[in-house]
Structure formats: C-alpha cells, structure tokens
Request: fold
Amino acid sequence: MGHNAKLRVWRGDASGGDLKDYTVEVNEGEVVLDVIHRLQATQTPDLAVRWNCKAGKCGSCSAEVNGRPRLMCMCQMNNFAEDEVITITPMRAFPVIRDLVTDVSYNYEKARKVPSFAPPKDLAPGDYRMQQVDVERSQEFRKCIECFLCNNTCHVIRDHEENKENFSGPRFLMRIAELDMHPLDTLDRKKMAQEEHGLGYCNITKCCSEVCPEHIHITDNALIPMKERVADVKYDPFFAIWSLFRKPDNAKS
Amino acid sequence: MAEVERHSYDVIVIGAGGAGLRAAIEARSQGMRTAIICKSLFGKAHTVMAEGGIAAAMGNVNSKDNWQVHFRDTMRGGKFMNSWRMAELHAMEAPQRVWELETYGALFDRTKDGRISQRNFGGHEYPRLAHVGDRTGLELIRTLQQKIVSLQQEDERESGDAESRLKVFAELTITKLTMDGERISGAFGYWRESGRFVVFDAPAVIIATGGIGKSFKVTSNSWEYTGDGHALAMRAGATLVNMEFVQFHPTGMVWPPSVKGILVTESVRGDGGVLTNSEGKRFMFNYVPEVFRGQYADTEAEADRWYTDPENNKRPPELLPRDEVARAINSEVKAGRGSPHGGVFLDVSSRLPKAEIMKRLPSMYHQFKELADVDITAQPMEVGPTCHYVMGGVEVEPDTGAAKVPGLFAAGEASGGMHGSNRLGGNSLSDLLVFGRRAGAGAAEYVGAIGATRPVVTEAEIEVASAEALAPFRAEGGENPYTLHTELQQSMNDLVGIIRREDELEAALAKLEVLKERSKAVSVEGHRQFNPGWHLALDLNNMITVSECIARAALIRQESRGGHTRDDHPGMNPEWRQVNLICSIDGEGVAVNKQALSSMRPDLLALFDRYELSKYMTEAELADLPVQDSTKGDS
Reply:
C-alpha cells in the first residue's frame, strides 16, 4: 500500500540553510504533516516543525508545499504523483527561526494595534440582543484560525519587508472589518483601517482568499466592503464638508 | 553556572487554553502582575478543538432550564462521583461566564428573539449549549485572547507598556515547580525557540495545562496533552483525584489511519445524526442502562419525534452520556457488526437537508471532505471511540482552585472532581471559565495575604532543574524518545483503554516500570534550539508518571463506572461510590490512597428523588436520607 516519497525540506536557521533531500515512507490517506512526523521520528529527530491539532483547527502547521502556502495537516499526499519531488519550505514572509518554523510575532504585534471590541457602556451582560443575520457577517471572519497564510502570501509584505510597518495584512484588516460589522461595536474603524493599518495598500488580487484554509472570503466580504465604507466617508462630498465642522470624535453617530 | 533569564510575577499561569486565559484575566483584574505561559503559540491551545458548545442553563430555548436542572444532569452524567460543590458552583455560574464572553466580543449563534441560541447535547435535559456552528472552542479561545489584548491595550494607555501587568510567554515549557519549604516559589522552564532556561519567581502558580491524551495511541488530543500539569503538581507535593476516569469520546474518525482519533463532534447527534451498525440497525436502543431507563426513548418513532416535540417525547438514546455510547460502539464492533474500518456508522445525511448540515456542521463537512474524502451530506461517517478527556486531575478546593500545596492552584481539565466519573459534553468549556476565574481569584487572594514574605527560587534548585532538563543530551547512545512514546501509547491503548481487566492492568504497570527505566537513558541528537526530540524526551517523563496514576487507580477500583469499565467487575458498586482514589508521588513511583467522598448538602440532595438515589447509594446512605417531600423530582 505504502510507497516512498521524495521530499525536499528546507533545513537551516536565521543565518542560512538549504534544501535537503529525504526519502520517506507514505501510507494510505496520509497528509504532508504525517510524513514530516515520520521523517522526524526515524531520520531527523531535531527537525523543527510547529503543529498542534492535526485537524485544520489550530492553524499552527503553516508552510509552503511546492511553493504554495498550506496547512501541512490538510494537504493530502495523494495530491502528488508518487514519483514527484515534494518541496517543503517555511513561510516566506516571516523570518526563519529554524527549519520549518518562522517567527510570526509580526502578527501578534499587529493584533495588539487593533482597538478591541467596544460595547455600549450601559449594556449589561446578558442583555445583548442581536439577530442571527446581523452576526453572520462577522462570524465568517471569526472562523479565522490565525494560520497567517493570508499575511504570508500577501504581495504587499511577502517580498517587501519595508511595508510591514504600515500594513497589517489581510488577517488584521479583516479583524477590523469584523469589529466594524459587529452589531454592537461603538467605534468608527474606517479611518484607522485606512490610515493606521494600510487598507489602501490592498489592491484586491485575492491571493489571501485563495490560500485561506477556512475558505473565508477575505477580499470579497471583508476588505472590499471595508474599502467601500472608507470611500463613502472619505469621498462623499457631504461627509467631506461635514467632517470639517464636527468635533474630533470616534463615536459612531 | 550559566546565566538564566529571570522574571518576577505575582501569579503565573501555566497553560493558555480556556482555563488559563480566564484565570489570568481574573488575576490581572484583581491587581496581580500576571504571566501566562503557553507551550505553543498564543491562541493555539487545545480548547480550539472543542466543537459543540458551552453548557449554561440560561433557559433561552427552553425556559424550564435552570441551574438546579443543570446540576442534576451533571451529577447523573458523573454517576454521582462528582465533587458536588464544584458541580453546584459550575451550574450556578456558567450563565454569567457565557454572558461575560459577549462583553469581550464573542458572537454566538442567536435565537429568533436575538438571544444566545442553545443546542441539545448528550445527557443535558434541555437545549443548553451556547455555540457557534461547530467551532465553539475557537470562538472561546479567540475571545479570551482578544480580551487579554484589550487589557494589555489598557495597560499601554496607562503606563506606556502593554506588558506591564499581563505578559504572554509563548512557546515556553515549564519543567519544574520550585519550592520554598512547603510552599510554591515559582517555576523553571525552557524556551522552545532557543532552548535557553527561564526562572519565574512567583508566590502563586496556576496549573491549567489540560489533559493527558497523548499517552494513548488513539486520541483526539494534540501533542501538548502530555499531563505536564498533573505531573508538575504531584512532584511539588500535590495530589491527583479520580485518575482512573478517562473519557473515550464515542465518535472519533477511524479512517484513514493517519486521522484515526480526530474528534467528530457530538453535535452531529445533538442535531439529529444517528448511529447504525453494519446491519443498518440503530443499536443504541439496546444499550440504555438501568439508571437511565425512563429518560430515553424506547422506539425510533418516539426518538425522532423528540427533535420537534421534546415536551411529549423522550430523547433518542444516541444522546446518552458519552461513556454509555462509547461502550455501546465498542460492543457492536466486538460482536462483528462494525463498519469496514472497525467503527460504526454515524449518519446525518439522511436526517437533515444538505444546506442545514453545511450551516450547522461546517467544520465537520470540511474535515471529512478533506481528510477522508467523505461527503457527510451524502454518506454516513465511520466513527469509533477515541481518548478525549481525563476527568481526574489535581485535587483542589472547589471554591478557590487551591491544591494541597500553598501557592498552587489548578483549573480546567488539569484539575479533578468536577465531572465525577464521566463529563457531559459542553461541561468542559463552562468548567474552564467558571473555575479558571475562581482559580485566578483564589491565587490573587493568596498572594494578597502573604504580604512581604515572598518566597524565593534558590540557585541550588535552578542547578538541579537545569541538570534534569539537560539529562537527555548527556546520555549517549540511549534510546530514541519517539520509540518509547510509541510503545507507551500502544500499551495504554491496549491495556488501560476503554475496557479494562486486572491481568491487563498489571501487565500495563509492569510495562510502565520497564519504560520508566528505559526513559532514564533516552538520548537526543542536535542542540537545544527548537529540538522536538528533546522536548518529547522531557514530556515523556510526565506521560509515564500520569499513565502510572491511571493504571494504578484503575487496578484498585473494582467496579465499572463512567470512564472506568472493568470487564472483571461489571456494574456500579455503591460502596465504591463513596471512595475517591488519591494519587501522590512515592519515591520514583505513584501511591494511591482511598479517601471518602464528602456527603452532599441536604438541599442539593433534595433535588433528586429517592428512587433515583437508590440506584447509586448504599443501604446505609439511603437510611440516613431525610424524609422527602413528594413534590421533588419533577423530571
């Protein structure tokens, strides 16, 4: 039943490294992560790889398989021909720590820059009332497992380290959209999306949506609607004049 | 000796799942400088795997629900072995903990009138589980993670430093708790990334490390679940309770082999899915045990009517507590009526329209589609039992989460008592929040009371801890930790699994002795930087210790109850219901002692009718019962 797969795995650390060839046994139904684990257990006990749930729910085992950003636990070996060489490399947009493990702290830093949910001050716990249809929009974005594959693939930062400072990536622009669409959030998040998190850098190539293992429509449902909301505020002549007179205030009217 | 990174906190929380994060939020909110230590990245803890929901008697879907009914269901599910005080606190406080999550930004599915929707689940009398499709655990962990970020934002506004009062140490593993005489002084561990050592000086430590499933071969648990907290607490002098009770979730994937054990949510059954054998028969009707007769439907027709008319029909037996369903599946497979890959069939495709399945069970749909090439909207799934949860854990004070050792606290799966011999689905997420908060408050109170007499971690302890952690590098030509781990998992699965026997448990203990010896000579290659072989070598010691607790307690308890089934001692024995088995460290091994269960408070006892209690209690206990008012027992 099993066959031997040809793997080419990136080994190294921050100072450099290169692709190493391995031959590893594969059994029916296995995914790339299974094969990496077998490699670790039988040939390279110190091969560094991050993983937790092995069921596509935690978003830890992100890497690039034949150049495509994937969760290794959801990438079946039968996608490849038996004699195909499968190349596994760490995510490219983040600094390598060792082997397949990267430093994803950029994401945690950006997360902390998004102002948290701000409910109405006078609303007591237990009194929240929301309609299903109104929560569904944000619920789609909350399916995110924070694998950071969207940020990894986004061309704004993938090969442009210099953009990282001003761009929070699809993951956190989507987080802003999620809060903006939360029926009970009281902050106006349009300006911050544009000015602090770099929504304008996104030119809707939809690469993020394509690699999302949760099949979230990041571009169509989060980023484009957010861009439209920003445009409404920014370029509507009425808003433009009105904003000259109103007090600087973040509260939604 | 080498320089060691050193931090000082009021409270450190080991574990960043639901219990750990809720504990940290509480400790920080009560003014404690708090550190959260996670073995993985922040937000990846095993809580994300919880699917079905969080049990809380809010009464949003059926207004008859209240905490007393939830308490009763919990005690029944645990076969009356639960710490009644924990079950009481849990049932009373769960609704507040769920509502609080909404203030942190959680978005649960809604009822028509805009409140939090609640779904049916095994062992719960009314629809009780707040949920978000089948990814409730992810919602819980993300919500708590985002609450922590929001507290850090507050601190940043106040002090300019986001981490001044609450800091997350990600990918850091604790290998030892340090002691100042009888009390906790802190913890010692290593950074995954660099392998460098870290010392935390802290008067209070909260253990929230989750479970032990990685000691078993077929498990729904991730690599982190190696019983670290259980073992750390024991080595610090604390005790574990009820370790023989291990929950095998009835529905794990069975095919293909590489995904064997991955969880299939109980919501599939809660939302109408049925279990059938190779003959196409809904076999659960043959497995309703005596204690649950009268609460479950006798015919398929009645069971099916219950989904739309729960007032006038009894619930389907597919929704019996998990231990019952797991044993039933095991028996069907043993009797030769299993599915092609050694499970049974779980079918929702003939029960709900495709669109409804996609809406209610989206992640199950993807899981089967992508990992097994099965379309659950068109075909049945194949499922079988998988090691899922340990009811046993650190013995704690119900109100504060305090363990036997001053300064040590525990919450969540790592603590014991709350669920008795078997946990109901949905009671875990609520347990995490209720007792996470209580442990955080307990730790804060303890630290507040010790004043200026803070314990310190001594250099000598640091040297010992470093030497222990580095031992696998010193041994040369020793065994590969992966080999030992595989053998451990195989023997626990074969000999201490869902059905147990005296001779097999003795064989397991003998095997554990051998593994214990061999583990001393494990050696690892490479260096300390992100080295999984080394990490496993250290985790292995914890798994062996915890496995010994399970096997020893399982050998002693000569009855079958909840998550402990003895082929050679079938049936519950009321005498054994009065006995907790307490594990402690004894030299290089584990000692198990009997301890009496405390008697339930009369007002709680009065929630059950005498007839039901007679199924669980001894003659002597029944004779002592107060005369009951006949209006009780309205179920």
User: Anything to note?
Assistant: Chain A is about 35% helix and 15% strand. The radius of gyration of chain A is 21 Å. Chain A touches chain B through 59 residues (CB under 8 Å). Residues 218-235 of chain A form the longest helix (18 residues).
